[in-house]
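Researcher: Here's a chain I'd like modeled. Treat it as a single chain, no partners, no ligands.
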Amino acid sequence: MKTRFFAPFVILIVTGLLVGLSLPDRAAESAAYPWKAAVATVDITPEPGTWMAGYAARKGPSEKILQPIHAKALAIEDADGGRFVFVTFDLIGIPRPFRDAVEKLAGEKYGLAPEAILLNASHTHSGPMIRLYQPPKGGGEERAPYANVPDEEQELRVRQTREYNKKLLAAVDQLLGESLENLQPATLAWSHARCGFAMNRRTPGGPGEWKNSPNPEGPVDHEVPVLQVRATDDAKTLKAVMFGYACHATVLSLMEISGDWPGYAQRYFEEDHPGTVALFLNGCSGDQNPYPRRLLHYAERHGRNMATSIEAALETPSKPMAGPIRSALKWPEIPYQQPPTRAELEEKAKSKDRYDARHGQFLLDVLDTAGGFPKSYPVPVQVVKFGNDLTLAAIGGEVVVDYSLRLKKELGEATGGAPVWVAGYSNDVMTYIPSKRVLEEGGYEGGGAMRYVRSTVHPAPWDPSIEERLVGAAEELEAGLRKEE
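Model: Modeled as a single isolated chain. Structure tokens:
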């Protein structure tokens, strides 16, 4: 396959200086902290004709490119030489094998510890397929995870995906190299605003039923956190913004490659600020949809609304960031509930619901080849602290908004009210991560979505302890980092 997404990319050196603030001693110290930073970006747009990720019902490959998609890196170094790199992708998610490959590369070539790099995906449903399924214990060759990929196309789609992943890893190599090599003096500041197009998508139906439709009464997180990077030699020179929001990138369902609304948000902000790079760090978007949706002009409007929200955040009083930058990462094992029996799977495989039938047969195949099911899955939890001024917690999977609301409160209280930024879709995206509430309610995010997953074996819904295990891991990591300061 001839790919074109590795055209030369733009490297931007990032530095910064804050202006116009009357600051107490601690804030003045933060404003003077000697950071170094740099950003880099690369086009990762695949050729038309690649299979797309995100919707199980698709029956064919992409037809054209609506909008280029990108990977971007923000590298930061503190006064002690400690380094951290954020890498963002206009992709459906980051599979664990890809995270492992990046870890190996980052450690061997750039001396970065696993906890010193965070990978985050925008979760656009208009990007390429990047995940493959490897049947366990001799169950056959790698396959495309989407059931609608025809058997006669399996070899082609597997080859395309392998080639794309290989070149994607090379792009990350270039992003890491260029951003780390071009670190320059910088100042960092945090500010925030609001944006209102996300709405909870879990609407009560009949008893025990939850419809995927807008629920204006459901929980949301409309905060738009913004990390500003400005030039030290020119306070007006904004070199980078990293912004967050909790909302699915599912406005579009076209057979066209794009970054959906986050892609438009980044594009519009960069057009309005020539020379500035905008990076999107996806939040706890698991049960949040953009509304209205399904039409191109809505993706454009939501992108413009987000770009305007970033502008609004720049108008608010900014909180200068001091160092050092510290980070920690762990992969707590999250158990599954009791898996179905063979008899139950055999009955499910006969279902008139094609997705139930496919899932039942999928698990039967796993049972036949592996002899059993996994009892747990490691879900990544990462915490990054900018001195005492900002705490960022990141969790893998499609995390529902309850986690963001809870962690902002509990970590904020633990750190004396310092800002808390919570991201999902980080380091590994394997399936939905429900809170205890959502798990007990059931529905798509509560376990129903697992029947569509054919890239990772999830034999049953998560154990009810999932929320306490993940929140506990984040709080444990944050407390450990706080003691080091």
